[in-house]
From TrEMBL:
Forms a beta-barrel structure that accommodates hydrophobic ligands in its interior. The keyword Cytoplasm applies. It is found in: Cytoplasm. GO terms for cellular component: cytoplasm. This is Fatty acid-binding protein, liver. Binds free fatty acids and their coenzyme A derivatives, bilirubin, and some other small molecules in the cytoplasm. Involved in intracellular lipid transport. Residues 5-22 form the Cytosolic fatty-acid binding proteins domain. PANTHER family: FATTY ACID BINDING PROTEIN (PTHR11955). InterPro entries: Calycin, Fatty_acid-bd, ILBP. Its main location: cytoplasm. It holds the Pfam family Lipocalin_7. GO terms for molecular function: fatty acid binding. GO terms for biological process: fatty acid transport.
Length: 127
């Protein structure tokens, strides 16, 4: 199953408490909470390029499944991570105490970020 495509955020759960917990400043949280971000994914075999545009903020990451890479996280910090593929439709990464699971089902991508007992969920639809 190919992740390649453009996806628009449809809904999200626990945005504000999660962003506060990871240390995002209140002004950025307020600016970002109502913006419908666009995620663009290009998959070439085991290599992925992901660009997430939220208003004027652009987050760009590239990685190859199973290989260590440097990723920029939501706070702007760059960290080392390894992304694994589970089955043919799920990407899993553990970054700085944060677990990220991205699952593709048809035209819907669900991204779940978990830190301790706090979970932030984003649902985006292919456009």
């Amino acid at each position: 199953m190919s992740f390649t495509g453009k996806y628009e955020l449809q809904s999200q759960e626990n945005f504000e408490p999660f962003m506060k917990a990871i240390g995002l400043p209140d002004d950025q949280i307020q600016k970002g909470k109502d913006i419908k971000s666009i995620s663009e994914i290009v998959q070439d075999g085991k290599t992925f390029k992901i660009t997430v545009t939220t208003g004027s903020k652009v987050l760009h990451n590239e990685f190859t499944i199973g290989e260590e890479c440097e990723m920029e996280i939501l706070t702007g910090e760059k960290v080392k991570a390894v992304v694994q593929m589970e089955g043919n439709n799920r990407l899993v990464a553990n970054v700085k105490g944060l677990k990220s699971v991205t699952e593709l089902n048809g035209d819907i991508i669900t991204n779940t970020l978990t830190m301790g007992d706090l979970t932030y969920k984003r649902i985006s639809k292919r456009i």
